[in-house]
Design a protein that fits this description.
With about 400 residues, this protein is α/β, with parallel strands linked by helices. It has two domains: about 280 residues, Aldolase class I (TIM Barrel), CATH 3.20.20; about 90 residues, no CATH class. The strands form two sheets. An eight-stranded parallel β-barrel has the order 1-2-3-4-5-6-7-8, surrounded by seven helices. Helix 8 packs across helix 9. The protein is elongated, with a radius of gyration of 25 Å.
Length: about 400
Amino acid sequence: MNASDFIYDWNAAEKTAPLSRAPFQFFDETLRDGVQCPSVTDPKIDDKIKIVELLNAIGVEHVDVGLPGAGQRAVEDVRTLTQAIRDARWKIKPACAARTHPNDIRPIIEISQQLGVEIEVMAFIGSSPIRLYAEEWSLELMLQRSAEAIDLAVKGGLPCTYVTEDTTRSRPDVLATLFKNAIDHGAHRLCLCDTVGHATPDGIFNLVRFARHVVDGLGAKVGIDWHGHNDRGLGVTNSIHAIEAGADRCHGTVLGVGERVGNASLDQILVNLKLLGELGDRDLTRLKDLVHLVSQACKVPIPYNYPVFGADAFRTATGVHAAAIIKAERKGHSFLADRIYSGVPAGLFGREQEIEVGFMSGESNVVYWLQRRGIVPEPNLVKHIFSRAKATDHLLSEPEILQAIEEYPRK
């Protein structure tokens, strides 16, 4: 059975090539940029290790394990997480954020040398006119600080990504100068940042292609990262456009946690790229476990209507919808049942369709609910529960339905 037998996909009607013509990777920022959110609790180290383990399990290639320059606790967490990656022989690779300052770079080099593990240095500096004005930075000072930081990382034997904060509001001439300086001093990647969620899809294409033009003009083999925030609600969309425009590594955080309204949601990026056919046979069924762990560890509630992983993502109590799902299941087609009222197949992401009983339900909802729990759907019992549901203004909880069953007068 093929999806095209039952679904006409306008999304692919004129699609003639993959989203990206080159391989791309993912970079998780949950444990660094994500925990900078004022409403987020910094997870305990055991939870951080579990988060990294699950990121590795779903195939995320890189993880920011912290900013050692933030203090001794951050240093210890970075050391512990890096050691866990080493000892478990996970494929995921550690990275650390650092200001373009030797005091931030040195701890990363020391931890790397102590553990015998390569840690990527993500050296960042603001680059937009508004930032330069506020900081009273000259371009010459920025070039000097950037060069010294990259030189120190490279001398320490570590790969260095040069991160320009607020790239999406920075002038082309300044960016071109900063990029060339970084590449000349050994940066192996450039990270383009939409630090305040300013960009639109057009801006993404303009910026990524500009950066690629600069790199190609220098004859350099340098990767391009995209790091987006969600202030306009475009975080996930922009990340997909960045990959299409030529970025070969995409950043995000689980549940989109981060400062203000958060970063681009890594889980939603993965879901969409999976549905676009860009991730091949990558197994994302444990993505659900990762999302719920981050929610618990960071004390961030998952909204009931959060895409794919919210409580209501695959749940219906509407009679017409439930009846269609039930009919599909009765035909023996779980493929159909998982798609007939869902644009996202629940099974791909460790979920399943759920049919509940409420004031907009039909009797088929009640029959299905009872059968799923091994209870014989006697006609009068079904009518009894159905009438109870119609008399309420909410979804009947499991205890309420069980109470209705208990109260049902049996002969």
